[in-house]
Write a structure and sequence with these properties.
single chain, about 500 residues, alpha/beta, Rossmann fold, GMP Synthetase, Chain A, domain 3, five-stranded antiparallel beta sheet, 25 strands, about 30% helix, binds 5'-O-[(S)-[(2-aminobenzoyl)oxy](hydroxy)phosphoryl]adenosine
Length: about 500
């Protein structure tokens, strides 16, 4: 792909202003419950907020602005306002509480905040403890103190704003890692990086059209969600449908109601939505993207049977900004994530960083137009080695350059000298009709080093008893090498997950 960018570049100008300037202002840009905005309308809203930020709230280019809201139109308008004004968007998961917001404010040195009224109390509590946060305004509120409301100021502000001519290498967003292990890290991404991800995976792999309607479940604070639901549709003049709550049920409703054609969500969500296959076949849905966690062959097959659609799997990370290994729907290989996205290079390396032959398990290393830049964090050297990004994933590459996910490097279980990837055992269990969800870990064991332990959530109507344990163990032994079967099985009501839906296996090692 052509990835030359001018010295001066503002990604908000490219993704938003450009369409209005080129006569596409009347095209549909954004839908939500009771809202339909054209590109010109989103631009006017973003411009009003940008004027409020710069003339009333004291924002100058380079300031970091906390954005805290469910996926709704004002969240998107605020994101563009900040970036147009040369600020840095720091989106936070809507479920975070004052203490966690305080950590983000501290790490990102946040000076301003725009939030949904529903989250104002938490943001204010965080502000009380962090005087660095000077100015807070909320939107979508009624019945709250009017002096902090954003809309009355927007009403008086001009709908025109001259987008700040930032440098292509100025930071436009800080993305926080999802914290599957510990203290969150802030990753920096430049205006250029945003345009680079728009030019790679969406153009070469997704291949959507301007009439497509994008929808999805991840929060916009997660770069998977920001890219899939906002940046990628806008890069091609398509539109997005936003859902404030996007569990599998609301997502199916939303696909139907908004005529969505492209959906972004995680494997667990596809498994549940597959039960609505008949209904989904009546909708306009045509492209389905899965990321965030490994998509196993059984979930891929389940979805294909239910809807007739082949899922586009892709691995991305907050550090890399978006997807770097993936496949087109017509090039899917069950069990494989895909090949390096055009623009990126990927290889599997050993502990010394040397590439290993095809068919050998090792660490995934990637390189491309985007990469990891932690803000003030010494853990940078854990992710980047000699110009390659080490994602922390164990992978195998086959002879055709397809990458097959094994586990997070921390989730490789070594039992009696055998290497067992936790997700492989999970996939084997998931293929059983009684299993709704499951998680597998390595339990310390004096004899074997580690043993395979499974936590299983059963589907309604199945009994959590010793017979079921035996049934599941025999089932695993019949589908994968018998030494991988779970010697210990616990039945649980639910599994610990992050706000982005990722399994927190470390919490199963030490139950609270
Ligand atoms: C895991 C996957 C197997 C993998 C993300 C798309 O997930 C995203 O970012 P995070 O920083 O986590 C990154 C880690 O998640 N993972 C993600 N996708 C897959 N594992 N198959 C997959 N398809 O361990 C990776 O290192 O939360 C995903 C786009 C943007 C993102 N930020």
């Amino acid at each position: 792909p052509e990835l030359q960018f001018p010295e001066r570049l503002n990604c908000a100008a490219e993704l938003l202003d450009r369409h209005v300037a080129k006569g596409r202002g009347e095209r549909l840009c954004l839908q939500a419950q009771g809202v339909r905005w054209t590109y010109a309308e989103l631009q006017a809203q973003a411009n009003r907020i940008a004027n409020v930020l710069t003339t009333q709230m004291g924002l100058v280019p380079g300031n970091r602005v906390l954005l805290c809201a469910p996926n709704n139109p004002m969240m998107v308008a605020s994101w563009f306002a900040v970036v147009k004004a040369g600020g840095i968007a720091v989106a936070a998961m809507p479920l975070l509480r004052a203490k966690e917001l305080g950590t983000i404010i501290e790490i990102a040195q946040v000076s301003h905040a725009l939030c949904d009224a529903a989250l104002l109390a938490e943001v204010q509590a965080a502000q009380a403890a962090n005087p660095r946060l000077q100015a807070v305004r909320y939107f979508n509120g009624s019945g709250l103190p009017a002096e902090q409301a954003l809309e009355p100021l927007m009403a008086q502000a001009s709908p025109h704003f001259d987008t700040v001519q930032t440098a292509a290498t100025d930071t436009c967003l800080l993305g926080f890692t999802s914290g599957t292990t510990g203290v969150p890290k802030a990753t920096m991404h430049f205006h250029r990086d945003v345009m680079a991800v728009c030019a790679c995976w969406p153009r070469h792999v997704l291949r959507a059209e301007p009439d497509d309607v994008f929808i999805g479940s991840p929060p916009l604070a997660f770069t998977f969600g920001l890219g899939g639901q906002v940046l990628f549709p806008m890069a091609i003049g398509a539109s997005m449908a936003l859902l404030e709550k996007a569990g599998p049920v609301q997502l199916v409703d939303g696909i139907e109601q908004f005529g969505a054609t492209v959906v972004f969500t995680a494997p667990t969500s596809y498994r549940v939505m597959a039960q609505q296959g008949e209904r989904l076949r009546q909708t306009r849905l045509r492209k389905c993207v899965s990321a965030g966690e490994a998509l196993n062959a059984s979930t891929r097959a389940l979805w294909k049977d239910a809807t007739g659609i082949e899922i586009i799997d892709g691995i991305g990370s907050t550090e890399m900004l978006h997807i770097f290994i993936s496949h087109r729907e017509d090039e899917a290989r069950p069990g494989a994530t895909g090949r390096a996205v055009p623009g990126y290079r990927a290889k599997v390396v050993d502990a010394q960083g040397q590439e290993v032959p095809a068919g050998t398990v090792g660490k995934l290393a990637v390189q491309g137009p985007t990469g990891c830049r932690y803000l003030n964090d010494s853990r940078q050297t854990q992710y980047v080695h000699a110009g390659w990004n080490l994602t922390g994933d164990a992978y195998v590459m086959d002879a055709d350059g397809y990458f097959i996910y094994q586990a997070r490097t921390d989730d490789m279980i070594i039992s009696s000298g055998y290497n067992i990837a936790a997700p492989e055992v999970e996939d084997a269990l998931l293929a059983h009709a009684a299993v709704a969800e499951c998680a597998v870990i390595g339990l310390p064991d004096s004899e074997r080093g580690q043993i395979v332990k499974a936590f299983v959530v059963l589907r309604p109507g199945f009994a959590a008893d010793a017979d079921m344990v035996k049934t599941l163990q025999d089932f695993v032994k019949s589908t994968v090498a018998p030494y991988k079967y779970p010697r210990a099985v616990d039945f649980v009501g639910q599994l610990p997950r992050t706000a982005t839906g990722k399994l927190q296996r470390f919490r199963l090692h030490s139950p609270a």
